[in-house]
Amino acid sequence: MSVRELVVLGTASQVPTRHRNHNGYLLRWDGEGILFDPGEGTQRQMLRAGVAAHDLNRICVTHFHGDHSLGLAGVIQRINLDKVPHPVTAHYPRSGQRFFDRLRYSTAYRETVGITEAPVDADGVLDTAASYRLEAARLSHPVESYGYRLVEPDGRRMLPERLAAHGIKGPDVGRIQREGSIDGVSLDDVSEVRGGQRFAFVMDTRLCEGVHTLADGADLLVIESTFLDEDEQLATDHGHLTAGQAARVARDAGVRHLVLTHFSQRYSEPEEFERQARAAGFEGELTVAHDLLRVPVPKRR
C-alpha cells in the first residue's frame, strides 16, 4: 500500500528550544523516503518518530546554515552504520560543496553505502523517479538557497458513464488505456486528465519568484514562517517570511494544505501564526507544525 505523508522531525528556527528541535522533515512518497534539511538532533528525532535510516533514499538540503544541515554528519554516518542496502542521493547547493564535504567526513567511520552527490546550481528538474519528478528553484536568502518540489505525472481518470455509452467494458477498458483508441473511440472520449499530486518545500527566503514557482498548485506546501507580521521588516532584513506572507503565497498558488514551520524562539503562542495566516485570506487546510507531527498528503483531486 502506498503511503504519502510528511513526518515533521523539528520546527525550530536558528536554535532549538525546550519543545522544538532543529529542522528536519521526512516525506514518505510511496516506497521512498526523502529527508529535507536535517538540522542538529535529526538522528534522535528519527528514532522518536519511528523513522529508520533504511527509509531514506534522498537527502535534500536547502542551504548550509546550521539549523538546516548540522544533522547531516550523524544521518550519513547512521546510513553507513546500518548498511542501508540501496544508494542514497544528496542534493544541496553546489556553492556549499565544501560544507557538505566537511559534514560528510567530519569524523572517522567506515563507509559502506554509496552516497551519490547531486549538487544543485540552477532552477529546473533534478531527477525523475518512477512516481515523481524532483525540481528545484532558487530562493532569496543571505546564503545560496534552493527550495524543492515533487511533481507526480498526470494520469487519466476513466469515466464509467462514458465507457458504458460507448459500449466499452471488461478487457477493452485496459486495452483503450494502453492503445489510446478502440474502434474509433479515443481515450479522451471516455476519460479525463487526473492531475498528479504536488509537494513543495520552501525554507529560509524572502518573497521571490522561486517561492511562487514552487508553491504553484501544491497539494501540500511546507513553508517557513519564521516571524509574525508585525516583524515583517526584520523578516525581510534576515531573508525570511512572516505567517501572513506565507499564507498569501499559498492562497494565490491554490495550495490545498498549508504547513507553517521554522518558528523563531521569540514567540511563545503558536496559535497566533494560524490567526495571522487566516487573516491573510488562506481558506484551505492549515497546520501549524510541531515536532513529531504526521501530515498526510491530500488525496488526489
Task: Characterise this structure.
The protein is built from eleven helices and 18 strands. The protein has 301 residues and is an alpha/beta fold. The strands form four sheets. A seven-stranded mixed beta sheet has the order 6-5-4-3-2-1-18. It has a seven-stranded mixed beta sheet with strand order 7-8-9-14-15-16-17. A two-stranded antiparallel sheet has the order 10-13. β11 and β12 (185-186) form a beta hairpin. α10 (243-253) crosses α11 (271-279). It is globular, with a radius of gyration of 21 Å. The protein starts with a strand and ends in a 5-residue tail after the last strand.
List the SSEs and their pairings.
Layout: E1 4-10, E2 24-29, E3 32-36, H1 42-49, E4 58-60, H2 66-69, H3 72-81, E5 88-91, H4 97-104, E6 115-117, E7 124-128, E8 133-138, E9 146-151, E10 155-158, H5 160-165, H6 171-179, E11 181-182, E12 185-186, H7 187-190, E13 191-194, E14 198-202, H8 209-215, E15 220-224, H9 232-238, H10 243-253, E16 257-261, H11 271-279, E17 285-288, E18 294-296
Helix pairs in contact: 10-11
Descriptive terms for the model:
301 residues; alpha/beta; seven-stranded mixed sheet; 18 strands; globular
- Give the beta-strand count: 18
Distance between the termini: 19 Å
Strand/helix succession: EEEHEHHEHEEEEEHHEEHEEHEHHEHEE
Number of helices: 11
Low-confidence stretches: none
Largest sheet: 7 strands, mixed
- The average pLDDT value, as a whole number, equals 95
Global shape: globular
* Strand arrangement across the biggest beta sheet: 6-5-4-3-2-1-18
Rg, nearest Å: 21 Å
Strand percent estimate:
25-35%
Structural category: alpha/beta
Helix content: 25-40%
Oligomerization status of the protein chains? single chain
